[in-house]
Sequence to fold (644 residues):
Amino acid sequence: MSNESLLENLSHGNKRIVSRVISLIENDNQKSEELISQIFSKTGNAYRIGITGPPGAGKSTITNQLTKLYASQNKTVGIVAIDPTSPFTGGALLGDRVRMTEIGMNDGVFIRSMASRGSLGGLSRKAVDAGDVLDAAGYDYVIYETVGVGQSELDIVEAADTTVVTLVPESGDSIQALKAGLMEIGDIFALNKSDRPGAETAISSLKSMLQLKFHTENDWIPEVLQTIASENKGIETIAEMIDKHRMFLTETNELSLNRLKQTKKRIEDIVLEKVKLTIKSKEFNYGFKDLDTLPDQISSPVQIANYIFKNLTNNKEVDVGN
Amino acid sequence: MSNESLLENLSHGNKRIVSRVISLIENDNQKSEELISQIFSKTGNAYRIGITGPPGAGKSTITNQLTKLYASQNKTVGIVAIDPTSPFTGGALLGDRVRMTEIGMNDGVFIRSMASRGSLGGLSRKAVDAGDVLDAAGYDYVIYETVGVGQSELDIVEAADTTVVTLVPESGDSIQALKAGLMEIGDIFALNKSDRPGAETAISSLKSMLQLKFHTENDWIPEVLQTIASENKGIETIAEMIDKHRMFLTETNELSLNRLKQTKKRIEDIVLEKVKLTIKSKEFNYGFKDLDTLPDQISSPVQIANYIFKNLTNNKEVDVGN
Fold:
């Protein structure tokens, strides 16, 4: 099928095509680049939600319940779920996937799992591209569900309009420092399994941590919500808070500013990826494979890097802006 | 003082000069690049140890005791400690720093703290450069002590010859997945505070996780040790295990292979940093500041990235190696 007819038929009513387009864009080639470009021009209508947190905090359950709620409101939902397939975590989440597959039977719900293993730098780009496909296909909501460990995963939720960070009371003590990265990206915090011991302490420690962050009066102050996702408790409150945040972003024009920032970040990532591939390629004479042939007087990493950079840019005079 | 006289006087006997050289290389300028290059040619003699783990696992205490042990064996030790200065973690580690400053009074011990805040990409490069200075100054051991959260921190311990991952029994449950990144980089695991409840369970779960990882018969099998660093228990065993790992690396030639790999990674990082600065600089006409002036037909991130990449490389034909 040509790109054109794929795009014409790309709609949340046709999951087979949605799935096929995502598979195509997962490849790195000329055709996929063209397709991604064509898709990008059709994006901007879906609202993007990132759901992240440590393993076992109930991300999948919250995604599941939130999706059910949206479906009951006749909204369509496209989900991009990043599977942690490290040898250490591989099996653990199988149950969640099964549960998620059930909501996937709903006509207005599409789920795409992506493996986090072995793709490192490319993962976030591809997950965000997959979100674009779902956006272009007309889904009302795009949900990125990803474990909050590693830069790549954080990059993905940064492509969301609203990020929900899920935590559990057990995260307790070490929460404070360990999840600093998560603290900084959350717009909404859901303390899940909040019927467990330690919930009150966790809530107040979360709140005091969030207060440590400097907020101007025009900032969005992240809310801390209590949920028991497995009993469907607190999910409506999350949905309401997402709406509230969306309204805030729209009114302050931050929605478009954030999206522009995200686009710039995506551009930068693609350029850097190309540079990485280039300096490692055989065709690039001063790439790593030929380190041995570099002139003798060049010996330190910084000198070699300068040499490679000059060669890459064809000795063009560029001010690197120190 | 000229670079030449700085280098001449760079020795673990002269902490003032060591400190000054590290401060100089922390700046990004022509002089610091030259200095780094000159220093690099004098490196390769120190043995580099990375000590990492979640906050509160006792990294500083282990670093402290291990350093005392080495000092008692008349070995000199240079420490590069990465301070987590996120608003959420800032104050917590002050006690550790004070304790570490005490060992710093020892003639053969040098401690340099580096802030992790606000330097992101550049941090790992500078920490590794600081390690080079200590190596060139003749310290027998260079220890990188860093919290195991974030890519930047992991990059630093990857510059070590032997990485010790410290954990505590409380890490318990969520250890399994959450620290997958740490699991993969550890050569030695120290379960610290191993007199606390749950130690036995933690040890066996750690061991079974490590067994999940595929090992060929020629691989180094990471060892799990028990320590109570605050009571100086288990520190000698860590030192012995570091020696054993060092011997293994030397015999299998992995020591030099790893170091070559690290050097290549450093080169790549510097090139990418230069590219980032370039595409963001005013002088580079198709940088982000001029996104608005791009031709109309260019609209998607991947197209803009291609455009920027072509401009960067002066339209030079390079095969990006797909």
Notes: The longest strand of chain A covers residues 47-53. Residues 85-94, 317-322 of chain A have pLDDT under 50 and may be disordered.
